[in-house]
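Ops channel
N.P.: pipeline sanity check, posting one input/output pair.
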């Protein structure tokens, strides 16, 4: 069980990257069937970025498709770093040399995903919501669980999954549905599984201890379109004991303004008409700007470069004597030349190589990056 209990640390340490498209804009999920504002979008990005789940094709994730038992075994096997296995399973419905062979063998040997009483594994059977709760509960080492408020359909939850469902609910891993129902026998979709896995694998991530200084000389400046950059900026500020300053346009962007798929939206117009990016900021310069010697600058990537308000801010301020570290948030696009272009606009300051963060990055990963800068 030691290997099972190590899963959170292993998964959080995993950092796989994928190719960025040259024309990805805002927070593109990379899938044509996963909208950036879908409730499961960040979870899909998380499992994709960490190599836990892939698309059903090069462009589709199929969020509403049912998750099979073989698929789930494979996801958990990947999260455990695909350890070597020996032997063979005794199931009558599995085959050797397939994409799931090692995963099913490993999952059954670990006692995580057991077969049915008739000698079958149920390779292509959909995973039910109570099954995934039970599997993850076993994955965590079958911890004690306190029962909370009963679901309206509590009586429908199988006895083997009762403790697991209590544990999953108490830890926010598997939530209920409308009218306080759990729907225990309902099939778990790929979107639900992505969300459940993200909740489980980021559960209880340790925070990096910080020793606050009497006075901060670091500042995190950021523009956030949908909240992803704001979250990372907060993580950086905590890790670097830095102050925060949000770049706010005097005329804020609305959700419709940010719809890059609409040819008539504000961001598309500004993209096609660079002169229209002369955006007034609510405040051009942070208070005590001259006192900061380290400045982090964060932004979402818009068409391969920093969001326009950030360029306006950089042009308006003097970075002489400051160390500047750019960072961006994106589901697919990399930092690209955005940092270099901002450095050119500034004309002053010592600009370091920046960092791209996925929209679902954990606080621990951000803190590791900040601490590695040795500022």
């Amino acid at each position: 069980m030691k290997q099972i209990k190590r899963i959170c640390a292993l998964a959080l340490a995993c950092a796989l990257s994928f190719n960025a498209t040259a024309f990805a804009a805002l927070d593109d999920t990379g899938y044509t069937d996963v909208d950036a504002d879908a409730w499961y979008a960040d979870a899909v990005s998380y499992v994709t970025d960490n190599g836990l789940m892939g698309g059903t094709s090069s462009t589709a994730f199929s969020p509403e498709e049912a998750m099979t038992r073989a698929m789930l075994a494979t996801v958990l096997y990947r999260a455990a770093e695909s350890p070597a296995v020996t032997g063979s399973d005794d199931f009558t419905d599995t085959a050797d040399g397939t994409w799931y062979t090692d995963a099913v063998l490993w999952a059954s040997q670990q006692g995580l995903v057991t077969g049915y009483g008739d000698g079958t594994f149920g390779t292509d059977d959909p995973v039910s919501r109570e099954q995934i709760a039970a599997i993850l509960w076993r994955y965590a080492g079958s911890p004690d669980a306190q029962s909370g408020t009963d679901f309206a359909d509590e009586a429908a939850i199988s006895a083997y999954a009762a403790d697991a469902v209590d544990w999953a609910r108490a830890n926010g891993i598997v939530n209920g549905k409308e009218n306080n129902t759990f729907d225990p026998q309902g099939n778990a979709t790929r979107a639900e599984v992505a969300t459940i896995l993200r909740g489980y694998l980021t559960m209880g991530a340790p925070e990096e201890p910080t020793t606050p200084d009497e006075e901060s000389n670091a500042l995190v400046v950021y523009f956030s379109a949908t909240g992803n950059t704001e979250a990372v900026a907060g993580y950086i500020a905590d890790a670097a004991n830095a102050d925060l300053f949000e770049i706010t346009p005097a005329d804020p962007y609305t959700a419709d303004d940010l719809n890059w798929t609409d040819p008539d939206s504000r961001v598309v117009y500004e993209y096609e008409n660079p002169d229209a990016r002369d955006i007034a900021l609510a405040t051009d310069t942070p208070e005590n700007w001259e006192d900061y010697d380290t400045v982090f600058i964060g932004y979402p990537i818009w068409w391969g470069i920093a969001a326009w308000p950030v360029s306006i801010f950089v042009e308006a301020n003097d970075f002489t004597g400051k160390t500047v570290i750019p960072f961006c948030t994106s589901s697919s696009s990399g930092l690209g030349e955005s940092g270099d272009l901002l450095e050119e606009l500034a004309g002053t300051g010592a600009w370091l190589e920046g960092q791209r963060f996925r929209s679902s990055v954990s606080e621990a990963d951000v803190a590791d990056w900040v601490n590695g800068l040795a500022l």
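N.P.: looks fine end to end. The first helix runs from residue 2 to 5.
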